[in-house]
Amino acid sequence: xxxxxxxxxxxxxxxxxxxxxxxxxxxxxxxxxxxxxxxxxxxxxxxxxxxxxxxxxxxxxxxxxxxxxxxxxxxxxxxxxxxxxxxxxxxxxxxxxxxxxxxx
Length: 104
Hints:
The protein is an alpha+beta fold. The chain has helices spanning 16-25, 53-57, 62-77, 82-98, and strands at residues 2-6, 31-33, 47-51. It is 46% helix and 12% strand.
């Protein structure tokens, strides 16, 4: 699955560029992306694009998707607090350790 999320519904000040940068610091990879009628430039954007192929290939399912959504929300809400971002990164690492890329 692939989805584009309009961040303005979450936080009107949050841009896709900021979200991409802070989530990368937390170990979560996604892209900034324009949304329909986006008032921001394509270099800044109001949205992000999230895909599930990497996670499902590793064997993650619905419970992990709920956890990932929580990790994303925690990171975006605490984006100005390095300790929050570090705590999320530790949780991301723990989740990924349960689902190694190569199982053998």
